Amino acid sequence: MDDLTSRLKRCAIEEGLDLVGVAAAATVPGAPRFEAWLDAGMHGEMSYMARTAAIRCDPRRLLPGCSSVVAVAVSYHTSWPLSTDDGELGTVWVSRYAWGRDYHRLLKKRLLRLGRWLEAEVPGCSWRACVDTAPVLEREWAAQAGLGWIGKSTCLLSRKLGSELFLGILLTDVALSPDGPVPEHCGRCTACLEACPTAAFPEPGVLDARRCIGYLTVEHRGSIRPELEPAVSDMVAGCDICQEVCPWTRGAPADLHPELQPVPHRFRPRLEDLERLDEEGYREWRRGSPLNRIPFPAFRRNLEVARRNLGDVTPVTRPSSD
Ligand code: B12
Ligand code: SF4
Ligand code: SF4
User: Fold this and answer.
1) How confident is the model at residue 314, as a pLDDT?
2) Which H/E stretch holds residue 36?
3) I want to staple 248 with a disulfide (CB 3.0 to 4.6 A). Which of 6, 10, 13, 162 is the partner?
4) Domain map of the chain by residue range?
5) Which ranges of 204-260 does DSSP label H, i.e. alpha helix?
6) Which atom of ligand 3 sits closest to the CA of residue 155?
7) Interval between CA 66 and ligand 3 midpoint (Å)
8) Does residue 236 have a pLDDT over 70?
9) Which ligand has the shortest distance to the CA of 210?
10) Average pLDDT, stretch 109-126?
11) How far is CA 112 from CA 8, 58, 116, 117, 130, in A?
12) Would the CB of 245 count as within 6 Å of ligand 1?
């Protein structure tokens, strides 16, 4: 590894990023898999995925002259209860990724500082920081950069940190020393495939987004198909099950970042309290989180599904007998 690459990696760790690796920019090896996924319509209503397919398959189309892809990850794994643990009666589940601060902003800020550091070292270089919303296949690049492997759950997993990771990418025209991919360590495990409540994996490593609760509660507009409703259970924003059952995630170190710890009102909120929120109240409830991808009507739909699944579970306050 050259000196610039090792200093860049040190800077990334000092900025609060847990994992960092480098890949050489090229057409992504998984491009045919991605195209097959689109052709099968598994992206559902996420038409932006198909619209930007060509750019997603080659980062040099996003940053002309791109030579290196720096992939970073931050762990959001916490020691707080699992979605399948018994919760207090009448409460619902908000996915772990939305408990703390918005990861888009958090990672972007850290990546922007990393980009500025690189620019100070190599004046005139070009770079671009991407978190989630840019047309980049982030998991693929994280795997190419050796951060971990792509598991049967389709998540990027690290032996050190499990899969509850937020990913970010820094594209640059600076030639850095690439890391190679690491071997996969799923072995014979199939826990994620078996645990998925909506059977969203047509085969290991392929996710039909149209069946995923992460899609149905966040990206999908309109009503949820009645046959999938019971499996959505009490989940009103995202789903954690395929990661919570993963042995690598279960054994991972927890609570690495105080800023990603749950704010109390997003950990197992009471359904009744959420049902009372008007649009303004909803905006306040989700403020600072990544939940702005769920518009109010879709959130109300999620609450209605949870209400049908939970039934009338509001605890009754009885007059005292003494
Ligand atoms: C669209 C999207 C979704 C969709 C579709 C998910 C999917 N699996 O495709 C929905 C809404 C369902 C979703 C759900 C979730 N998402 Co999402 N999502 C994205 C987004 C915007 C694009 C993903 C994408 O391109 N999908 C298309 C598929 C085909 O691509 P892919 O999964 O990356 O697979 C490629 C490679 O993995 C490769 N590949 C797969 N297997 C193998 C095996 C081998 C051997 C090889 C060589 C290659 C290979 O082939 C594919 C084509 O290149 C990314 C951000 C980004 N810009 O990348 C976040 C992202 C993938 N999501 C993320 C998260 C956290 C989630 C949720 C946990 C949120 C939640 N709690 O509800 C769930 C997890 C569900 C799951 N099991 O994947 C994280 C993933 C972190 C991680 N550790 O992997 C990302 C990276 C966002 C971020 N910046 O942190 N998501
Ligand atoms: S996030 Fe939930 S619904 Fe989606 S694939 Fe994983 S277990 Fe299945
Ligand atoms: S649960 Fe098992 S099969 Fe699924 S991603 Fe984790 S190790 Fe791989």
Assistant:
1) 56
2) helix 31-39
3) 162
4) 3-83+99-172, 191-251+263-310
5) 213-216, 229-232, 241-244, 247-250
6) 5
7) 33
8) yes
9) 1
10) 98
11) 13, 22, 6, 9, 9
12) no
